[in-house]
Structure formats: structure tokens, C-alpha cells
């Protein structure tokens, strides 16, 4: 991976409000926390650890990055992020055979966890493996007695057992892993490293939302979620933050899909020239239309001529 990409990842991961995720719809681990000073070492590895979890990514020359923006259900808002992509790995795609024991976690970030046992939940996502790690004899008995059970089966006893015992959750891809140590809450998602396991969503076996234009031959191995201009770190709506908008927009411009970039630029040029909305040729492709809608939402916050903006919003 080019040096400037490593520097970009280090800078984004080091920001105080950047969250990191590995997984897909229905089975995902997220790592967030305080500001971090991080960089890749001589082995192309970057690592962060705290009392609630740990994160590690190791890269080589086979990855690429894709910045993206998607629509939010909240009016005049959007979501954005950057995915690190790699070719699909058949190993993960074949992990749909239910709960099974892997063995000692020799890749554990802490030496103290290398003799604990890993169990794959067999989520079947083609980009990652959602596992649990434990030394607890009682939980080991439960896991081994339910080997082969699919996490999507109804009345699954594993779900309650995972909450009751709160073992380490370890989610990894070909290049990265997130380990979550803090307990699982039945009431609310805790701050800091945590996981989401929603069997009803796993049936679709989707690694990402359809609006993100990831090539069919690749899958997201790691996703960065920088500070959003319209939402705080808890996901609550807030007034538009120009500083947050300015901090990640150049990354989108530099690393988004070409078709997406083209439409964003075309619409901004039309605004700069004060073109009439009625004369604008609406994009014909799905990705072009997404870029148009996202950019219009962004212009609703950055355009100073509200009267002119209204002619577009009403078009």
C-alpha cells in the first residue's frame, strides 16, 4: 500500500471522533474511544489497546481504499466513511456452518489471551469472522454442547449465554481484528469498543449497504467512520458542524468512486454558475443520483443564497 495511504489511515484513525468497524449487517464490532496517536510500524502494523478492547490492522500492497457518502433517514443529513478493500476470501464466505470451535487464539493481541479458545459463530459474512473467546469451563460446556447450531435459528440458547457470560468478542478480517472486552449490556449499547449481533439481519449475508459502490470481487476489510457534521459521537442529531464537514470532504473528493465524484462536481459547478434547477440534467445512474441527493443536502448547509437554494429543493 502506498505510503500516503498509510499516512491517511493513521491520521483518520488518530482523530478523537473516528470509529472503526469490522463486519457486516447483523454481525459487527466497533472500536471507538479517546484521541489516539497512532502510526504504522516497520511491519506495516498499527495497534491500539485499552481496558475495554483492542484493535490491530496489518496491511501490505494488496489493499485499496474507497471513501463514500450515503443518505441518512434524517432530513438534510448523510452518512460517510472510508472502507479498506481487499479481494474476497473464500474462507470467510464458507463460514456459514454454524457454531464451531477453532482452537487457541494464537493471534490474540494480548499474550494473556493466546491460550483462550476461539469459537466461530458461523455468520456467513464474506468479509469477516465473528468469534467469541473464553477460558470459562461453564461457557465452554454450553458452546461445545451446541456445536453446529446456526446463529440465525429461532430460540437460540447461545444468545442468552453470550449476554450472561460476556466473553471476549473477537471479529477479524484478512487484515484487521477488533477485540471487545467490556461486558454486554441488555439495556443499551455501551460507549467504547462493542459488538452488535442481530441474527435477523444476517440472513441477507450483506457486508455493506447497497449504496456503497464496492466492486463485486472485493469486500470491506475495515471501515473508518470519521466525525459526522450532523450527528455527535452518540448518533444524536446536532446543528451542522462546518469544521467536521471540512475535515473529511477532501478525503471523499480524493478517494470516492469516479462517477460519484463527477456528479458532485457537476452539481457544485451548476450552483457556482447560478444555473436554473429546471435546466439541470438529472443523472441517469443510481450512483449519480445518490451523489446528486447527498450533495444537495450538503449544499443546504453551505450555500449562502437560501432563495436560490430553495429553487433547487423545490425542483
Counting helices, strands and paired strands, the structural category is alpha+beta
The number of distinct structural domains comes to 2
Order of helices and strands: HEEEEEEHEEEHHEEEHEHHHH
Low-confidence stretches: none
Ends apart, CA distance between termini: 44 Å
From the alpha carbons, calculate the radius of gyration and give it in angstroms.
Answer: 21 Å
Mean pLDDT: 92
Largest sheet: 7 strands, antiparallel
- In terms of DSSP E residues, the strand content is 15-25%
Shape call:
elongated
Number of strands: 13
The largest sheet has its strands arranged as 3-4-11-10-9-8-7
Helix content: 25-40%
Number of helices: 9
Short descriptors:
9 helices; 13 strands; seven-stranded antiparallel beta sheet; alpha+beta
Note down, in words, how this protein is organized.
- The chain is α+β, with helices and mostly antiparallel strands and 315 residues long.
- The protein folds into 2 domains: 1-256, no CATH class; 257-315, no CATH class.
- Helix content is 29%, strand content 25%.
- The chain contains 9 helices and 13 strands.
- It has helices at residues 3-14, 90-93, 137-145, 157-165, 199-202, 242-255, 258-272, 286-302, 306-313; strands at residues 19-24, 27-31, 45-50, 53-58, 64-71, 78-87, 100-104, 117-120, 129-134, 168-172, 176-180, 194-197, 218-225.
- The strands form 2 sheets. It has a 7-stranded antiparallel β-sheet with strand order 3-4-11-10-9-8-7, covered by helices on one side. It has a 6-stranded antiparallel β-sheet with strand order 5-6-13-1-2-12.
- A hairpin with a 2-residue loop joins strand 3 and strand 4 (53-58).
- Helix 7 (258-272) crosses helix 8.
- The chain is elongated, with a radius of gyration of 21 Å.
- It starts with a helix and ends with a helix.
- The mean pLDDT is 92.
